[in-house]
Amino acid sequence: MSTWKTVCALVDIPVLGSRVVRSAEGDIAVFRNAEDEVFAVHDKCPHKGGPLSQGIVHGKSVTCPLHSWKIGLDTGEAQAPDVGCAKRYDCKVESGVVMLKVA
Length: 103
Known about the structure:
Blueprint: E1 3-9, E2 17-21, E3 28-32, E4 38-42, E5 56-58, E6 61-63, E7 70-72, E8 88-89, E9 91-94, E10 97-102
Antiparallel strand pairs: 1-10, 2-3, 3-4, 4-8, 5-6, 6-7, 9-10
């Protein structure tokens, strides 16, 4: 059964930055883009396991700091020509609070 877990206030995640949430499934990177949208993906690049939370956020994507793979934050999918997927998690902002849906 999944539940919504409070992560932090939206303002606690830097614009174009991230915050790491520990979970039973491993680390989850929660990102905030320039439009104040939030996204959450498993904090491992599907290529070599690089920490996506340390990557560069641009639009609705993050570039892995190890080998520059671009991962769509809204889908978790690697952008062509690369192939792979980071698990995506549902998240939302309610009254300025970021919430993550976890098992």
